[in-house]
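Hi all, posting the design record for the shared folder.

TITLE: backbone redesign
STEP: 1 of 1
STRUCTURE INPUT:
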């Protein structure tokens, strides 16, 4: 119920192995998933308990739990106690009766556990029985049985004799069950039912199964009374039957030339399938051979325990020996047992011990002005280091003459070519020649053991003059003018400049876009004047702004090479009188409802409301007009009952500056009362227009039917060059006159 691990120290350092817990789920599995509730400890899959972080047993002991899971996923828990006891006390407690067996078990544990640094390994402590072995409902216990692997027989081979102390007085029958007995692998172990002799029937392999647990049963003859079964543990003892195997058949490493002693090159790793933490799997490495043996036979050394290969001697030179091949051996039994081999190919990499050099010290180039990303020159270099390495690849830099960053420098794809291009457009009028100084280095720094000089070259760039386009300054010019500016008055002087100052060219102007046709420009001076009266209320004016496009060209060019935008902010003048929006309305002759008329003015603020209204002429006798409280609308009222029909009401409306105009509205008076405005057809015009229109249409159709044949007849006679009689012509003329009269009469009647 409690597994006690005894230690001889209170301070347990990380890496200390405390002991091993055993677990079986009655299968052939040898590794299980363990865990512990103490984060300072760890349990490996073999059951080995190890200290992860330092543990101090202040009170001399510490309890914790170890959990394991069987093949069915069920969790089992074992309480464990770390118990501190003095080493001498522990040894003295061993009963003399069991001292030999305890010593043998201790040696077995030492085979499984690492004893580095002389750390204390616990000894399984058998409890005392007085007298003899302690009984657990039986008279005897069975210690673990050890069988070496790879035994060649003959088989079956005797392993052990397990007998009861009662077989001298009674007939006893023995049997075993479990994996290796009556479960797969079946009959690997057999037992003589009469003698209790245990046999193994074939060769064992620890690397497949390292331990078997069978159940030993005893039955008494005669009455058949059986004792309680007991577990028998059969340990398979490891033999050194597996040689070390490298993780790779060959390794590849690199080392820079002229590397110093101790430089790490590569690490090789080999593994051994024999039992871990024993001499059978304890691997050590050594270098067997080196090819070529130049400048010495031992240029490299290997750590026998880790497999790390380092430089042993100075003098590595890529130009003399570019590559070494090492044969490396791994041997178990700490270097004295079975061996495995691998090859290590070490490439000596180049150091930057040669500086790149320009093929020429001086370069010249010509570039047109204003061109961006134009190729200026390509500059070649040579380098004595290994091609296409960081020690050979070149890097270029403009170190003088590029303060304004007019040029850019990059390395070509072949890594041995410097390319200069223009980062900005060059200006011939400003500077016609540029002198650049370029340096070149490698991607890798120069080797400190070599004294190298950085190569430089001079590049003279001549700027070629071109006829550059003109430029308006500013690109968009804003002016503010009154919309009432007189004709031929100056709006603005808008000119362009010529960057080609040395050419002395004449600049001329023209208007490219003038939507309303209001402007004119002097082609020589660029003075813009008013050609037609401007109007802020025009459809071409947006948000009080009128836009025109001006062009400029020099005497070498026909088309405009520069454009400028002129934006005129038009200041409003009171040039639009107010008007009435509603031009027609209908009103009842009896108890008429006053009519609200909306007044608008196209002018801007300051030239609109408040408005004034007055009736004009004889309409004053029947109508009254007044402004609403905001003085932005008119209330027109019929004061007397009028005959039904259409009437024209004339009014004069003035803005706040007194600018006025006479406006008329048409009022249709109907035979109705108040707000119930409804006009019947007979209320207006005194007759039925649809009936009249129907009659007129019938007359027109009749006249067409009568006149069209005569008209066609006259045309045919003329086409045949036959004389047309007078009566035919008179009839045709009469028909044509009648058709015209009918159409006019119909139109007038329709309008009424």
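Okay, here is what came back for every position:
SEQUENCE:
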């Amino acid at each position: 119920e409690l597994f006690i691990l005894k230690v001889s120290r209170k301070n347990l350092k990380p890496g200390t192995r405390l002991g091993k817990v055993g677990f079986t789920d009655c299968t052939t599995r040898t590794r299980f998933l363990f865990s512990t509730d103490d984060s300072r400890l760890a349990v490996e899959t073999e059951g080995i308990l190890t200290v992860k972080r330092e543990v101090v047993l202040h009170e001399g002991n510490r309890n914790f739990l170890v959990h394991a899971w069987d093949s069915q996923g069920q969790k089992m828990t074992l309480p464990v106690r770390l118990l501190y006891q003095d080493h001498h006390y522990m040894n003295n407690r061993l009963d003399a009766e069991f001292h030999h067996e305890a010593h043998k078990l201790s040696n077995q544990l030492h085979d499984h556990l690492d004893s580095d640094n002389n750390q204390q390994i616990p000894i399984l402590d058998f409890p005392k029985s007085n007298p003899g072995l302690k009984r657990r409902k039986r008279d005897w216990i069975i210690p673990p049985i050890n069988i070496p692997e790879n035994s060649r027989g003959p088989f079956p081979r005797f392993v052990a004799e397990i007998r009861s102390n009662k077989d001298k007085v009674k007939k006893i029958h023995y049997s075993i069950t479990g994996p290796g007995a009556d479960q797969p692998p079946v009959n690997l172990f057999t037992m003589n039912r009469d003698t209790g002799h245990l046999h193994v029937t074939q060769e064992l392999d620890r690397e497949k199964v390292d331990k078997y647990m069978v159940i030993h049963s005893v039955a008494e003859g005669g009455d058949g009374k059986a004792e309680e079964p007991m577990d028998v543990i059969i340990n398979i003892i490891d033999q050194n039957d597996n040689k070390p195997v490298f993780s790779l058949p060959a390794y590849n490493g690199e080392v820079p030339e002229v590397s110093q002693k101790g430089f790490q090159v590569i690490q090789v790793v080999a593994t051994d399938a024999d039992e871990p933490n024993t001499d059978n799997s304890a691997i050590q490495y050594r270098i067997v051979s080196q090819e070529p043996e130049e400048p010495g036979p031992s240029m490299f050394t290997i750590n026998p325990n880790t497999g790390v290969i380092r430089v042993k001697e100075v003098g590595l030179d890529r130009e003399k020996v570019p590559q070494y091949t090492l044969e490396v051996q791994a041997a178990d039994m700490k270097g004295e047992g079975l061996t495995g081999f691998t090859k290590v190919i070490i490439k000596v990499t180049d150091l930057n011990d040669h500086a790149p050099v320009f093929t020429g010290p001086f370069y010249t180039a010509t570039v047109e002005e204003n061109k961006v990303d134009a190729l200026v020159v390509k500059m070649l270099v040579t380098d004595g280091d290994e091609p296409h390495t960081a020690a050979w690849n070149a890097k270029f830099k403009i170190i003088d003459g590029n303060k304004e960053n007019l040029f850019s420098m990059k390395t070509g794809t072949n890594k041995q070519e410097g390319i200069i291009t223009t980062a900005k457009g060059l200006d011939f009028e400003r500077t016609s020649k540029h002198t650049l100084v370029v340096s070149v280095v490698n991607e890798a720094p120069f080797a400190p053991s070599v004294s190298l000089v950085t190569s430089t070259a001079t590049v003279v760039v001549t700027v070629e003059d071109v006829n550059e386009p003109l430029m308006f300054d500013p690109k968009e010019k804003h002016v503010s003018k009154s919309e009432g500016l007189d004709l031929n008055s100056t709006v603005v002087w808008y000119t362009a400049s010529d960057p080609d100052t040395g050419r002395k060219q004449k600049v001329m102007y023209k208007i490219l876009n003038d939507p309303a046709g209001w402007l004119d420009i002097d082609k020589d001076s660029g003075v813009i004047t008013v050609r037609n009266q401007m109007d802020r209320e025009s459809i071409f004016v947006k948000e009080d702004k009128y836009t025109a496009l001006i062009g400029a060209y020099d005497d070498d060019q026909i088309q405009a090479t520069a454009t400028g935008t002129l934006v005129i902010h038009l200041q409003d003048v009171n040039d639009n009188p107010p008007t009435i929006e509603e031009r027609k309305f209908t009103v009842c002759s009896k108890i008429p409802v006053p009519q609200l008329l909306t007044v608008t003015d196209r002018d801007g603020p300051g030239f609109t409301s408040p408005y004034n209204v007055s009736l004009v002429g004889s309409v004053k006798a029947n109508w009254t007009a007044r402004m609403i409280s905001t003085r932005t609308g008119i209330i027109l009222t019929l004061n007397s009952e009028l005959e039904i029909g259409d009437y024209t009401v004339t009014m004069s409306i003035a803005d706040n500056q007194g600018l006025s105009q006479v406006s008329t509205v048409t009022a249709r008076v109907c035979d109705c009362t108040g707000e119930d405005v409804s006009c019947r057809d007979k209320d207006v015009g005194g007759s039925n227009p649809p009936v009249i229109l129907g009659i007129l249409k019938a007359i027109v159709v009749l006249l067409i039917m009568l006149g069209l044949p005569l008209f066609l007849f006259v045309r045919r006679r003329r086409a045949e060059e036959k004389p047309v009689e007078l009566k035919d012509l008179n009839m045709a003329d009469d028909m044509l006159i009648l058709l015209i009269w009918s159409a006019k009469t119909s139109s007038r009647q329709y309008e009424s």
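COMMENT: The helical segments are 87-93, 99-112, 332-335, 689-719, 726-751.
Let me know if anyone wants the other runs.
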